[in-house]
Amino acid sequence: MMPAGLLPALRWPRRNPPITARTGRLVPALSILAVWQMLASGLNSPRLPSPLAVLEMLVAETLHGPLLHHLGVTLLRVALCFLLAMTAGSALGIAMGSSQRLNRWLDPWLQLFLNMPAMVVAILVYVWLGLGEPAAILAVTLSKLPNVMVILREGRRRHDRDLADMARAFRFPRKALLFDVLIPELAPFFLAAARSGLSLVWKIVLLVELLGRSDGIGFQLNVYFQMFDMTRILAYAASFMLAIQLVDVLLLSWVDRHVGRWQR
Amino acid sequence: MSVVGNAKRLSLSLHAKHWPDGRQVLGAMNFSLAVGEVLAISGPSGCGKSTLLSIVAGLDQAFDGRLEWSGGQPPGLGIVFQTPRLLPWRTVLANVSLGLADGAKNTSPARQALAEVGLSEAADVYPARLSLGMARRVAFARALLSEPDLLLLDEAFASLDDEAAGKLRASVMTRVANRRMSVLMVTHDLRDAEEMADRLLVLGGTPARVVDERAMPTRTSAPTLTSTAVPTDRSFARGSCPP
Questions:
Q1: Is the pTM of this model over 0.90?
Q2: Which residues in B lie closer than 8 A to residue A187 (C-beta atoms)?
Q3: From the candidates A168, A170, A172, A179, which should be mutated to test the interface with B, based on the most B CB atoms within 10 A?
Q4: Cα dist. B222→A39, B40, B198, B202, B219 in Å?
Q5: Which residues of A touch B146 (CB under 8 A)?
Q6: What ipTM was predicted for this assembly?
Q7: For labeling, which of A120, A156, A256, B42 is most exposed (least CB within 10 Å)?
Q8: CA A98/CA A110 separation, integer angstroms
C-alpha cells in the first residue's frame, strides 16, 4: 500500500527557486544555531557543548583525528546499500506493478518487511550471518528495499497506456521503449525513492555500525557515547549530516532539475 | 482473432468486439481498404469508431474476426491519435524522429517533416509549451515522417484552425496521390470526409454496425488540393477493393 499523502509529493519541484527562497533556507538554519547557542550558554554543561566547540572539535578530528577514515567507511556502506536497494527494489517494484500475479505472490513479503523495524532486521541478520560486513550491507539493503519497491510499483501502475500504445503503433525498438518511454515515465518515482532512500539508508547504516561493526561513524558514536563525550558525538554526527546534505544538494537536486527540465 | 495477408491493402471481417466487462461494443461488419483509397468512418460519440481504428492498428487484438493484410505483413503504419500522445520529456524534434531507426543521428527528415506542418521553430521545445493544435501538427509530422503505406487518423483535424487543417489535408492527399498511401480516418466532421474520402462508412446502433455506406463525391473538388494531388486511378474508389 502506498502511504497516504506520498503521491502528491512525487510531483516535480519548481525549478530554480527564487533568490529569496534560497536565502530563506538560511534563516531556519541560523535560528537553530542561535537556539543551540543560547541553550548551551544557559546550561553551561558538558552535556550540551556550544556550536563553536563542536565546530572546533570537527576541524580537529578532521585534521588530526580518525574522522575522515570513519566518514569514508560509512559513506562507502551508504553508497553500496543505496545502490543495491535501488537496483533490486526498482526491478522488483516495476515487476510487481506490471504483473498482478507476481504482486499477489510478493505483496505479503513486502508488507512483512515494510512493517519490520530496521533494528529487528539488523539483529536478525547479525545473529544469522554473524557480525560481518556482508551482514551489515544485507541488513541495510533489506530495510530500504520495501520502500523502493512500493514507490516503483506505484509508478509502474500509473503508467500511461496511451503512450505505450503510441510506442507500439510506431513500432519503437526495445531500446527506445526502455529509454524514451518507460524510464522517463518512472523518473519522478526513481527520484522520490532515491531521496527518501538516502535519508533512510544512512540512518540505518549508523544503526548497524553501532550494533555490530568496528569502524564507521555509528561505531564511533557508540564509543563516544560510552565515554559520554558529547562534543565528539555532535562533531561526528554533524560531519555525516553535512556530507549527506552535500550529496543531496549537489547530486540529487541536480538530477531533479535535469530530469524535470521538460516541465513548463 | 486471426491475421492473414496480401499487399498494402486490408480487409476486416469483424464478428464482434466485446469490452473486458462483457459488453459488446462492435457488431458484425466487413470492410476493405484499397491501395491509395481514403475511407472515412463516422458515427455517434462512443459507438466504437476509435476501437475499430485500434483493431486495425494492431493495438487491440481481442476481437472476434479476421484482419487480413495483402502481402501477409501489416504495412508501414502511421497514426494520428485523438490526443497527440507526444512524449512530454522529449523535445518536439525527438518526438517526431523517434519512430525512425536512425532518427537520433539524422534529424534532417524530422526537421523537414516539422517544416511541412509549419513548426520548424518549435523543434527544440518540449510539448508542454505547445497548444493542442500545435501538438496535433507535431503528431501529424511524426505520422507522415515514416512515409507510411497506411495512415490512420482519429479525429485528427479537430482543434485545428481551417488553414492548418487545410494544409494537413493537402499533405495527406499528396501522399495518397503520389505514393498510393491508404488512409482510414475516423471523423465527426463531414467536411473532412467530403474533402478527402472516397467512401464513407457510418456506424450506428448498439453494438455498432455499419448503418450506411456511401461513395463520396470525387475529391477533385477539394479546395485544398493541387492538381498533382488528385489520384487518377479511381476504379477502386467506389466500394469494394480491387482483386
A1: no
A2: 89
A3: A170
A4: 85, 15, 12, 21, 5
A5: 170
A6: 0.79
A7: A120
A8: 16
